[in-house]
Amino acid sequence: MAPPRRKNLFRLAAPPSATIYVRRGFLAGLKAEFEALKGKRAALVEDKIEAHSQGDLRENFGFKAAKDAIRAVDRKMDELDRFYRRNTFIEIDPAIWLTKPTDFVQLGHVIRIEKEDPGAKRKHRFTFLVATCGETAVDTESDLECLPHNSPLAAVLLGLAAGNPAPVQLPAGPAVLTVLSIRNPTQAELDRLLAPIKFPEMDGSE
Known about the structure:
alpha/beta, Helix Hairpins, Chitinase A, domain 3, six-stranded mixed β-sheet, two-stranded parallel sheet, 8 strands
């Protein structure tokens, strides 16, 4: 068996496929962004060809810049393509969040939580809207913050009932989470938090 290529030797394994909830219109926007990147790449290729025609490539900074830009766009397109093909997407209308049952934490709930760090014995309180993928907005009027449902914190909160401390393991270490309250958002809160649609960061890094 051939040895692994150096390029892939230290690369982290791709995350497992997941069901990702997104707002209605997210997938159309994702495809539009991909098409925009294709157009940007075509323009960069033209710049590269033009720079190539200008002579000595060893001192041709325009050629090198266009080449590097094409590589960056290619990496971002590859990331977007993998993100789209790897996962299953379900589009959600946030209007249904206004009247959901509040027995336990679900997508679309506004939750107030207490986080205790066992080692330091410190407690912190936060209020979040458990939102769809890519949502990071903060409502400056109420300090209500979007918490994407597929984030590590949301993953351990979903399904919890209010009032029961739950020991959990977070990326930063162990913690005890207590859901203090669960409610539905108001329409005004959704209006301030959920526009426009934002995509996950794709930096195209190796």
